[in-house]
Design goal:
Elements lengths: L2 H6 L15 H10 L1 E6 L2 E7 L6 E7 L1 E8 L4 E8 L8 E6 L19 E6 L17
Antiparallel strand pairs: 1-2, 2-3, 4-5, 6-7
Length: about 140
């Protein structure tokens, strides 16, 4: 290996240890570096490098929920999809955490990420129509 090859070879950095931590700069970093995609209505994917370990992560943000409803009177169990009703476009605060699968020294078994967490405020895109607060009336 020549000196030039060593300059091009990636340097091995020490493994970042797992630590549950947050800082105001984490949310600022995420707001600047992450992107938001909406693959289908009610589902967004927030993607970018973790503010602590810098591993690119995908974080789903959903507005649809699945719940199981049991009707005791009839003894019937049924699955129901519930979707949040559209409301006036306000910023939405989402708690987030690093979900990388990179090794981090000291990470508990069955955990993911480096331990970083933050709250991200997601604002509606400019020009988004404001949903009506009153139900539509039939003509």
């Amino acid at each position: 290996m020549t000196d030039r090859d060593e300059e091009r070879a990636p340097r091995q950095e020490p493994e970042l240890e797992y630590r549950e931590t947050t800082r105001p700069e984490y949310a600022e970093w995420v707001a600047e570096k992450f992107t938001i995609e909406e693959p289908e209505p009610g589902t967004q994917i927030v993607r970018g490098p973790c503010p602590r370990c810098r591993t690119v992560i995908d974080i789903p943000v959903v507005s649809a929920v699945f719940r199981l409803v049991v009707d005791d009177a009839l003894g019937v169990t049924r699955a129901v999809w519930g979707r949040k009703r559209a409301s006036a476009p306000n910023p939405q605060v989402e708690p987030m955490m690093c979900t990388c699968e990179d090794p981090h020294l000291g990470r508990p078994q069955d955990y993911v990420g480096c331990g970083a967490y933050w709250n991200l405020t997601i604002s509606p895109p400019p020009g988004q129509p404001t949903p009506s607060r009153r139900p539509d009336r039939a003509p």
